[in-house]
Design brief:
By secondary structure, this protein is mainly alpha-helical. The chain is built from 22 helices and no strands. The protein folds into 4 domains: 67-127, no CATH class; 131-264, no CATH class; 265-312, no CATH class; 337-430, Butyryl-CoA Dehydrogenase, subunit A, domain 3. It has helices spanning 3-61, 67-72, 81-85, 90-93, 99-102, 114-117, 133-141, 144-147, 158-164, 166-174, 182-186, 206-214, 229-234, 237-244, 253-257, 270-275, 279-286, 289-297, 302-306, 337-368, 374-393, 399-460. α20 (337-368) packs antiparallel against α21. The relative contact order is 0.04.
């Protein structure tokens, strides 16, 4: 069969298929119109019945309130507060009711029978005694089988670690009910998930939560501990990062002291606590001559130089013998080897900073003049990184090692200085070339002007 005959046959076949589709479409439309004519009157007649059933269906889907909620929502003040607070409560959202903690009969059928609702036979305990709150919360939170139904990632050792804490020891061993229990930190009826920014144990809110007790001088009287920790923390480098810069990686109270197992870090553990974030510093300190000396003298390692709650941003002035911040003076005599060691380290850092500053100044001048200095700027950034590493190396407390470590940064700074000077020299060369070019152009223009004027006079003459 020729190409033209084959093409003609296929077009005819296509027209046949289209005709069949149109025919089926007409049939389908006829069926739909027929169904519409039957269903529309039927649905119209059922509409009043459907509207009448809607409230009944809604009531059937809405569970009845427990006897606790039904009663307390009619009250006011602190008796109404539990009902209001439970709207956002993490336990209520997971289906746990008042009876889970307070006991009693939550059945709506006894909502108007207070004695039945508060039946001791139904386990009603009312407001839990303060000393019993940890065990009450622990009934669920220490039960792995119970917790994994709701949040398998949630630990179940809170009660066990609380018993080892300073709070738990005083509560269980000394009967001191002023110490913090679960509800003091987490709340009671309005408990929010720990990752909820409104929660009292959300990182940004932890200092204020701890401060409710630890910043209250009257409440803490008799314990023999200061009450300025929160104020000190607020002005510290950590407090500034967490509370003002909203950096959730910055430590709050519980990151150093623990939460359920909160205890003051003892002397030997301080370096381990700080070292969880400051890994390089801790490793260098452990290898330094100070590590053994601090252990023998009972000094608090990191805290001896940096403090605890009021840790300020460290500066090179702490190694400057002329500065009031010179930390070596806390332990060492003037002109001692350790004193000289600190002074030498300060000199090394000052040299690095001076060279980097010189390089940055030269390169910035060249950049403002329009020169290409991207390579020099990259080298300066690398030199800055080396300066940071050199400052970390201070924790090894050996000037000779610091000098060796600083050579890379000093070399990079010198390289950037050379590039900056080269760029400025090229700039001067270009400016001189431009000046010479302008003189030549001006001279040519002047010669042309004189030539034109001469020819003009000749033409007129």
């Amino acid at each position: 069969m020729s190409y033209h005959k084959l093409s003609k046959a296929r077009r005819a076949e296509g027209r046949g298929h289209r005709a069949k589709r149109i025919e089926h479409g007409v049939v389908n439309c006829s069926v739909l119109f027929a169904l519409r004519s039957v269903l529309c009157p039927l649905l119209s007649s059922l509409r009043p019945l459907l509207f009448a059933l809607c409230p009944l269906l809604a009531n059937a889907q809405t569970p009845q309130e427990s006897s606790c909620v039904a009663c307390h929502k009619l009250l006011d003040g602190e008796l109404l507060a539990p009902v209001t607070a439970r709207e956002n409560d993490i336990h209520a959202q997971n289906g746990l009711g008042c009876e889970s903690c307070h006991g009693g009969n939550p059945s709506p059928e006894v909502a108007e029978d207070i004695e039945a609702a508060k039946s001791r036979a139904a386990g009603f305990i009312g407001k839990p005694a303060r000393k019993n709150i940890p065990q009450l919360c622990g009934k669920c939170h220490s039960d792995p089988a119970m917790i994994k139904k709701y949040n398998p990632a949630l630990p179940t050792d809170q009660l066990a670690t609380y018993r080892t804490s300073y709070h738990g020891e005083r509560l269980f061993q000394k009967g001191d009910e002023k110490v913090a229990v679960c509800s003091d930190c987490h709340g009671n009826h309005g408990i929010l998930a720990a990752n909820d920014s409104r929660s009292s144990v959300y990182p940004l809110n932890v200092p204020a939560t701890c401060g409710r007790c630890h910043a209250n001088a009257e409440y803490m009287a008799g314990y023999g501990i200061p009450t300025d920790q929160v104020a000190d923390y607020d002005s510290s480098v950590h407090g500034n990062a967490l509370l003002r810069k909203r950096d959730l990686a910055a430590p709050a109270c519980n990151d150093c002291h623990g939460n359920h197992g909160a205890i003051p870090p003892d002397v030997k553990s301080i370096a381990h606590v700080c070292g969880r974030c400051h890994l390089n510093n801790a490793d260098l300190f452990a290898k330094s001559p100070h590590a053994k000396a601090y252990e023998e003298m009972g000094l608090a390692q990191c805290e001896a130089c940096h403090g605890n709650h009021k840790i300020t941003e460290p500066t090179d002035a702490r190694l400057d013998p002329k500065s009031s911040e010179f930390v070596c003076a806390n332990c060492h005599e003037p002109d001692s080897e350790s004193w000289k060691n600190g002074t030498e380290m300060y000199g090394i850092l000052t040299e690095m900073k001076s060279k980097i500053h010189t390089a940055d100044s030269l390169v910035s001048r060249a950049e403002r003049a329009g020169m290409e200095v991207s390579e020099a700027k990259f080298i300066i950034t690398s030199a800055d990184d080396e300066l940071i590493k050199a400052r970390t190396q201070i924790h090894n407390y050996r000037a000779a090692i610091l000098r060796e470590r600083a050579q890379t940064g000093i070399g990079l700074a010198n390289q950037a200085v050379d590039l900056g000077r080269t760029a400025l020299a090229e700039l001067q060369f270009r400016r001189k070339g431009l000046a010479v070019s302008m003189v030549i152009i001006f001279a040519v223009a002047a010669a042309l002007y004189v030539k034109i004027r001469r020819r003009d006079r000749e033409w007129r003459g």
